[in-house]
Specification:
Length: 347
């Protein structure tokens, strides 16, 4: 009997795929805290990993001291409590931002006092703050992103994603924004399946990277030179800013790196949160499927992945909204849409 080796290899690959789909590595956290009475709408960790800002549903946003499990401040933009839809920090950690629909309030983290209240004509989808919080990059529901000078109260640049990449005659919605550590560049990701790199001084588009689905997350590598972009139900990529070339794509499965990923849903993972370790050698990602993964930045190799244990059986899943390394790099914090903050010690 003569065996067809390519056919046997195909059967082996199918078997591997079945194993990968069926595997579950659920892990209990080392510590956890309830940061919301109902559920959180948005969350962001301070750059030093000491605080987490949680935007509650129909409740004031709360700034928590993570290890002390203590609310430092409760913030809302006026006397009427609303849902905080977006939150963020300046890169120096001194300014926090909360957004309720079309209003942003900037807060001084040291005192908890409001610094400025800004109202926009359309709703805000995503935001990023500059190093000192004196500039904002906002993704708006009018299909633009605006670079806003807080001190001078004016729009500096308007960025758009035209629909050419998806054969559309209209501009596409922008979902994610980021400002580079130097303050010179911006990243945007949109429904047109592209992530775009911009020069903020002139508004010039420098690069565009095409994905297989709408782009929902973008970030700059803190040491410079590289960016990370991710597509919903697609791949998360690490790109060289200077050349535009892909360094690697993150693979949550154990599929061999020298083989292209099959076009199966099980090999496509949405990334909903990321953070780099204090020494910038590692990357942690959070996903809407209760999953968290740790990666080596230099190679893109997966070090570990685990499933976050579900807290309530009747809730269908846990969306990881924000992740961060502890200041000493020995633990990872996560914040989920169920209002639970968790701590994971690195083994």
């Amino acid at each position: 009997m003569i065996l067809d080796l390519p056919f046997l290899r195909f059967i082996k690959l199918l078997f591997m795929a079945a194993l990968l789909v069926g595997c579950s590595n659920e892990r209990a956290s080392d510590e956890q805290w309830a940061h919301s009475d109902l559920s959180s709408y948005a969350a962001a960790f301070s750059p030093d990993g000491q605080y987490v800002l949680v935007g509650d549903t129909d409740a004031p946003a709360k700034l928590w001291d993570i290890e002390a499990n203590k609310v430092i401040y409760s913030w809302q933009n006026n006397d009427q409590v609303g849902t905080t839809t977006t939150v963020g920090f300046s890169a120096d950690g001194k300014v926090a931002a909360t957004s309720e629909q079309d209003v942003i309030v900037l807060w001084e983290v040291a005192t908890g006092e409001p610094m400025l209240r800004l109202s926009f004509p359309v709703k805000i989808k995503a935001l990023a703050l500059s190093l000192h919080g004196d500039y904002l990059l906002l993704a708006l529901y009018d299909r633009t992103a605006v670079y806003f000078d807080v001190i001078k109260n004016r729009v500096v640049q308007i960025l758009v994603h035209d629909g050419k990449a998806v054969n559309s005659p209209i501009n596409q919605l922008i979902n994610a924004v980021a400002i580079s550590p130097s303050g010179k560049y911006a990243l945007t990701g949109g429904d047109d399946q592209t992530a775009r790199l911009w020069k903020l001084e002139t508004g010039e588009q420098l690069r565009s990277w095409k994905h297989e689905n709408l782009v929902n997350i973008v970030a700059f590598y803190p040491k410079g030179g590289y960016v990370l972009t991710g597509a919903a139900n697609g791949q998360t990529h690490f790109w060289n800013m200077k050349t535009g070339e892909e360094q690697y794509a993150l693979r949550t499965s154990a599929w061999p790196k020298d083989m292209p990923l099959p076009n199966f849903p099980s090999f496509k993972t949405t990334t909903s949160a990321i953070d780099f370790s204090p020494d910038n050698a590692y990357l942690i990602t959070g996903h809407p499927s209760q999953k968290m993964c740790l990666w080596a930045v230099a190679t893109g190799d997966k070090i570990d992945c685990w499933q976050v244990a579900r807290q309530q059986a009747l809730r269908p899943g846990v969306v990881i909204q924000a992740v961060a390394f502890s200041p000493d790099g020995k633990a990872i914090y996560s914040e989920s849409g169920n209002g639970i903050g968790q701590k994971w010690l690195l083994k």
